[in-house]
């Protein structure tokens, strides 16, 4: 079941004398929604995901933090101190590091997650085939996971997380190394998770985020400088040109212009979903 996230006054320093990686961050994310967290490199996006997943509190003993986080019914003040999986699943920027390397097939790699969760064998058999099919990797089930393309590896890594049916899925800049075909497939996967899983995806660009997100949050130097809908975000573009790539804005503006001029086009359908036309 998808979980609501509530972050209140969260500040994080990696050590007592360090510059804040997150500074008084307060954000709420509805259960079953997709939130895109945008911002330049160093804005605090990855830190935020590592906080929510429990990675930061578990592995960085020198962290100094304040504020609170609520995930479903669990409240942490300030940080979760243990890894939150399977409640929260984290997909890293490099999906290859999430492949164990000790299983010989994609099917066995996904099963490895469920074995570690000590699920009964009949439930494992019920979960894996439909999941592989939904992610479009059922034809890879007998392939060695270390021999796959970047997009295929990413979907296998996602499968190892989604097999556990997390309430929250965190994806750290998932489109960085993907070609257009792989980006389209990822877009479809995230849309299929709506209402079932709360998704938080980070990016340094806007294009992919506008296609999947219900909510846009912009971070800069650890602070939230925007929190709103995609429509509100597009209306305030000029405020973010110093922290996000200007080329993205030009593409978005072209998309909007094309949408208005070509009724029924894919661009118009996207712009219509955003409330632009």
Shape annotation = globular
Number of separate helices: 10
CATH class of the largest domain: Alpha Beta
The major beta sheet can be summarized as: 6 strands, mixed
CATH homologous superfamily designation of the largest domain:
P-loop containing nucleotide triphosphate hydrolases
Strand and helix order = EEEHHEEEHHHEHEHEEHHH
Mean of the pLDDT scores?
90
Q: How far is the N terminus from the C terminus?
A: 33 Å
Unreliable residue runs: none
CATH architecture of the largest domain: 3-Layer(aba) Sandwich
Descriptive account of the structure:
With 277 residues, the chain is an alpha/beta fold. The chain has three domains: 1-87 and 166-237, Rossmann fold; 104-165, no CATH class; 245-277. It is built from ten helices and ten strands. It has a six-stranded mixed sheet, with helices on both faces. The longest helix has 16 residues, at 246-261.
Please give the structural blueprint:
Elements: E1 5-13, E2 22-29, E3 34-38, H1 45-53, H2 55-59, E4 64-71, E5 74-76, E6 88-91, H3 106-116, H4 121-134, H5 150-162, E7 168-171, H6 180-192, E8 198-203, H7 207-212, E9 215-220, E10 223-228, H8 230-235, H9 246-261, H10 266-273
Parallel strand pairs: 3-8, 3-9, 6-7, 7-8
Antiparallel strand pairs: 1-2, 1-4, 4-5, 9-10
Helix pairs in contact: 3-4, 3-5, 9-10
